[in-house]
Amino acid sequence: MSGIVGTAAVSVGNGTPVDDQHTPGGEKLVTVGGRVTVAVVAGTPLVVKPSAGRLCKALVTATGSANGTFYDSPSAAEGTVIGIIPSTATVGEVIDLQFPAATGIYWDGHAGAPPATVSID
């Protein structure tokens, strides 16, 4: 039996999810804090997620002197900005972003950007 959840076809009841956005039963996965964490640092651009998902939260792990920016892009600092860790962020601060990414999540890694652990779906 097949069903449509969102825009992805999901096979229901066979125990195998079609993608990481659905349970084996076909239900859409939704979390507040994300299901995976990734460390981002200054001076190192990074593909946080190469496919659609959601940028959930950022835990600032050190101070910075420049803003760090996340883009809705699978491979470059281009496209729609979906999150910013400001240069004024303090260590231990949790930034609740909750932005969807249609194509992927990319960290620009500017020198001086505050390092953080980000949670994603």
In DSSP terms, counting alpha (H) and pi (I) runs of 4 or more, how many helices?
A: 0
CATH architecture tag of the largest domain = Sandwich
Helical content band: under 10%
Low-pLDDT parts are 1-15
CATH fold-level topology of the largest domain: Jelly Rolls
Distance between the termini: 26 Å
Strand content: 35-45%
The helix/strand class is mainly beta
How do the SSEs run, as a string of H and E?
EEEEEEEEEE
- Whole-number count of domains: 2
Summarize the structure.
The protein has strands at 2-5, 8-11, 36-40, 46-49, 53-60, 68-72, 81-85, 94-101, 105-107, 116-120. It has 121 residues and is mainly beta.
Architecture blueprint of SSEs:
Blueprint: E1 2-5, E2 8-11, E3 36-40, E4 46-49, E5 53-60, E6 68-72, E7 81-85, E8 94-101, E9 105-107, E10 116-120
Antiparallel strand pairs: 1-2, 3-10, 4-9, 5-8, 5-10, 6-7, 6-9
